[in-house]
Amino acid sequence: MIIKMLCIIVFFVFLPFLLTLMNEYILAIESSCDDTSAAVLRGTTVLSNIIANQEVHRQYGGVIPELASRAHQQNIIPVVDAALKHANITKNQLSAIAFTRGPGLLGSLLVGTSFSKAFALSMDIPLIEVNHTNGHIMALFAQEENETTKVPEFPFLCLAVSGGHTQIIKVNDYFDLEIIGKTIDDAAGEAFDKIAKIMGLPYPGGPIIDRLAKEGNPNAFSFSKANIAGLNYSFSGLKTSFLYFLRDRLKEDKDFVEKNKADLCASIQREIIETLMKKLVKASKETGIKQVAIAGGVSANSGLQKAMYDNGKRYGWEVFIPKFKFSTDNAAMIGIAGYFKYKNGMFASQDQTPYARTTTQK
Question: Is the whole model's pTM more than 0.85, yes or no?
Answer without folding.
Answer: yes
